[in-house]
Design goal:
This protein has about 230 residues and is of the alpha/beta class. The protein folds into 2 domains: about 140 residues, Rossmann fold (3-Layer(aba) Sandwich), CATH 3.40.50; about 70 residues, no CATH class. The strands form 2 sheets. Strands 5-6-7-3-8-9 form a 6-stranded mixed beta sheet, with helices on both faces. Strands 2-1-4 form a 3-stranded antiparallel beta sheet, covered by helices on one side.
Length: about 230
Amino acid sequence: MDDEPSGLGIRDLVAGHGRRTVLHGITARIPRGRVTAVVGPNGAGKSTLLDVIAGVLAPSGGTIDRRAGRPAYVVQRSAVPDTLPITVRAAVEMGRWSRLGPWRRLTTHDRAVVEDCMARLGIRELAGYRLGEVSGGQRQRALVAQGLAQESGLLLLDEPSAGLDTEARQRIDAALDHAAGIGVTVLRVTHDAAVAERAHHCLLLRGGRLVANGPRVIAPPAVTSP
């Protein structure tokens, strides 16, 4: 894996919220075409790191080299209101907006991408349901499908399988493995030791600092929340 071109380069990254610094001089290399798990206790800065990489939060220092291009960011399902008046299909279709713009009609290719992403996550039969009508696990799968539909070279996910049933976790894991297999750089925050063990690469954060970075460097106790 050392010979793989980097999908994401982070150097001396400093970031925070207001006057509170959360990330302290993070430097890491994230390999292309691999699933990288970001682990550590609550408050370690995992979500803040994703926010900075996604461009949601501006860093106060350091640089990010996004060789994989504009990232697709999958938030936790709790960030999506139950009352959002869109169907599962429409939610996944939103993943194509970055390529088309919201006022352009989807092409045959766009619709094929949407159908494929829903099929990979096992939610095609839910396409006509509103997001608020499906279970939390099904909604999370729709959000992952939306991220995949963007066809970005860099996919960021904040605990995409937390609290989900076995089927949902397996669907998401398989979809992310497939994405990595076709060259996508996947970066996922997780508290799940099994997910970290399966990942090709890991970043371990503690107190906003990177304390380990590489393949198979995380022992299961390190990813358990305090």
